[in-house]
Amino acid sequence: MLRSSFASKRLFTSSSRLLAGTTSSIEARAVVFTEHGDPTKVLKAHRYKLPKLAKGENVIQGVYPSKPKVRDDLGPEPVSIMGNEGVATVEGFVEDGEVEKTLKVGDKGTWASHANLPFTSLIPLPASLHLTHRQSATLAINPPTAYRMLSDFVPLNPEDPNRKKGKKQWVIQNGANSAVGQAVIQIAKEWGVGTINLVRDRPSIEALKEQLTALGADRVLTYDEFLDRSNDIRSQIKQWVGKDGELLLALNCVGGKETAEMAKLLGVGGKLVTYGGMAKTALALPPSLFIFKKLTATGFWLTNWVATHPRERTPMMHALAGLIADGKLKEPETEVVVLEGSDDDVRQRLSDVMKRLEEGRAGKKVLLHWQEESEPSGADRQADDV
Amino acid sequence: MLRSSFASKRLFTSSSRLLAGTTSSIEARAVVFTEHGDPTKVLKAHRYKLPKLAKGENVIQGVYPSKPKVRDDLGPEPVSIMGNEGVATVEGFVEDGEVEKTLKVGDKGTWASHANLPFTSLIPLPASLHLTHRQSATLAINPPTAYRMLSDFVPLNPEDPNRKKGKKQWVIQNGANSAVGQAVIQIAKEWGVGTINLVRDRPSIEALKEQLTALGADRVLTYDEFLDRSNDIRSQIKQWVGKDGELLLALNCVGGKETAEMAKLLGVGGKLVTYGGMAKTALALPPSLFIFKKLTATGFWLTNWVATHPRERTPMMHALAGLIADGKLKEPETEVVVLEGSDDDVRQRLSDVMKRLEEGRAGKKVLLHWQEESEPSGADRQADDV
């Protein structure tokens, strides 16, 4: 049986005592919703007997193409279980066989895409790496997204035989403070790739610039600084990249005005890779960039990649876990929210957290931890070993 | 020496008696401009002794990245010669040598990019193909643009070993009535690829639909029909393509609202190829298409392609000339405007033609023909043998 802890930013995920087997009579708890809507209101706690595993993605806002599956086998009312990223420690097994050949008691497993956990969706992380729960719970989605975007569009990965020698390579990204953005900065640094990082202005901007610089960012600019024409930032960036450097990759999770400006800075044949649309508007790009500068705009979604690269995932995750263990890839700042007490208590706590997230007051990635009902109370458990 | 005839739509091109050699004392005439500006006003006739050849692209509106070279060796005033597409018949040679090995008297040559014609920029079209001047003069840019866009992004060319078998392939395009669009329809037809064609509404829309259908278009829709939601055109198009068909390529020379709708119709991994921006606005595309549907937006410009594929051009041009000779690729409707008489007469005629083009009243591609001063008058020469 697995004890679980879950990572998410806007997309909550939770379910306790998930099994690396197929059936059981153990009671599980999960964060669920029975209708789409305001995340501060629709999330609630749910108890159920663990049923047979079923595949299905569990996402609350209904904007993702893979809608959470509505389950009617978990109780009197149909529910959808939240969750697409988490970590659990193996405590035992419901069934012997395949599972025990790979996982050992004490190992951790990280996953994406399945809250009811078929064994094949688990990525085992050997206990010998000594990763914390916080490190493991934030590993499944964002770092691999960064890793793939730095590998698959322009050959920047040092293991890629097509990586250019001689010309220092650069990347520009918006949303550089996101969990993906921070992973981009650190992986690029490790690979000898320069980064130009754009972030929102904020009262604590200098501290943020210092934080990203400490992670390995070469340059950090606010969107205002980047878009201010009196700064002549374009020639400044060209100077940073230099004649013996090359800027061919832009990573976009926002899609505002700055995105077209990032695309304009790319050399001929550059790639603009979109992995998010926080600005919630269409991406507006001048046709001349496509025609005359051979721009390619494309996108990345880890779920698509995983579906088409079943064998490449585990080695990549081990490479990333190795970077983490070596202190070269730090997890984003996290806050553990312990779910405990009555279903009403849990519901209230979920609502409070979602409100803080919506108002942008969390500032950290929130990890949900289901308190085992036999465990000591949550107040004692918010340390890094949660 | 070559006798010349020139094709253009908005971009005039002209210069008579171009040489397949390097220097001479023959007097040439050309359409030139000495300042950028309103094309109905700035174009004029110019006489000069043919100088040494110089490379340079000659484009009037100054919107292309390759600006026309200003020449100060052609007379007292600096001028820029117009022209990037045309045809000429070989009548003789100024210099013997390389040229005569490939070209024979009576052959035609078609070209792009150079008004002062270095031999290497000529694509020889053997006299044995019996192409008319109208066919040859319109061959250098638009049909190869169509050919490459159907070959290089999704493997639709029957000679491509990666072309899928079993699934009928489809293409959707806007501006389908353009010279490129008409070539797309006909080449796709020849290759067994279905086409869905979008055009502007107009009083003669039924005649246009019939004309494009006669060329091989499977479906022709106006933008209004395409964007009218009450038509539920999306499910209709899905039905046309069918479960055993695939729509992975969209060709865009407009960039209006219809472009995002074309992109939405593409299957997962589809390609949106932009080769023009007639709407003169940014291309607006939903980020979700890039992230979840693996859309790739890119562009095509023949000049870029030619620069990077020096050996593949002539075989492609011969394949296209073969399609024309077989009656499978018809040139767009053309109108020959004969330039003759005094420089003022020529200037007036150029101004009239540009006005008609600007007002959209030409309806046809305009070919400029410089009347040799010893030839019979233009009135007798507007037949297809011009």
TrEMBL record, chains A, B:
One of its GO terms (molecular function) is enoyl-[acyl-carrier-protein] reductase (NADPH) activity. CDD domains: ETR (cd08290). It comes from the Eukaryota. It catalyses: a 2,3-saturated acyl-[ACP] + NADP(+) = a (2E)-enoyl-[ACP] + NADPH + H(+). Residues 37-367 form the Enoyl reductase (ER) domain. Keywords: Fatty acid biosynthesis, Fatty acid metabolism, Lipid biosynthesis, Lipid metabolism, Mitochondrion, NADP, Oxidoreductase, Transit peptide. GO terms for cellular component: mitochondrion. This is enoyl-[acyl-carrier-protein] reductase. It comes from Sporidiobolus salmonicolor.
